[in-house]
Amino acid sequence: MQSSTLSRAFFDREVVSVAQGLIGTVLLVDGVGGVIVETEAYDRDDPASHSFVGPTARNAPMFGPPGHAYVYRSYGVHWCLNGVSRPGSAVLIRALEPTAGIDAMKLRRSVSDLRLLCSGPGRLCQALGVSAAHNGLALDRAPFRIEAGGTTDVAAGPRIGITRAAEVPWRFGLAGSPYLSRPLR
Fold first, then answer.
1. Per DSSP, which regions of 101-170 are E strands?
2. What is the pTM of this model?
């Protein structure tokens, strides 16, 4: 039996609902990926969001249609994958529990510990092979596939790795998951 895939309409909602709803879904890129266990929400009025300054060449996908990828480089080192919701809003995919293509992930990351393969947005993108080439692509078409998930226990807490509005409790995770980038407080 094949799992149902999420459509672009799933993303055409308020960003916090999308971020919470992605927990427990399965993200695959060319068949490699796993269960989304951690996300962060960012909206247009959020001083921590790339869209806060308005449209730029870098953040253009955030102002495009819902259900597309916004991929950017963090600190000039790591790629980060986001799913665009409504204009100016996106969900950062922070961590996965690896379930598919684990050998490919281990090779790309040069790491054998499953907990370290996708626990953080940069690690996740490296393990899945996500790069600038994926920026702006539809999340409901190849190479992406997002499958609906089961019922999950979602925990919330403050966002991490940012300096502005870090106290906003828009970081969501699968409660008790050992695959989170950091435990939720």
1. 144-147, 154-157
2. 0.91
Q: Where does residue 140 rank: exposed (0-12), middle (13-18), buried (19+ CB within 10 A)?
A: middle
Report the C-alpha gap between 46 and 51 in whole angstroms: 8
Distances 3 to 9, 84, 149 between C-alpha atoms, Å: 17, 22, 8
Q: Are strands 26-29 and 32-42 parallel, antiparallel or unpaired?
A: antiparallel
What span, in angstroms and rounded, lies between the C-alpha atoms of 120 and 35?
13
Q: Is residue 181 part of a domain?
A: no
Indicate the number of domains in the chain: 1
Residue 23 belongs to a domain: yes
The runs of H, that is alpha helices, within the chain are 8-11, 15-22, 102-109, 114-117, 121-128
pLDDT in tens, 43-77: 877 766 666 577 787 788 878 899 999 999 886 67
Render 4-41 in DSSP notation, one character per residue.
PBPPHHHHSS-HHHHHHHHTT-EEEETTEEEEEEEEEE
Residue 1: inside a domain: no
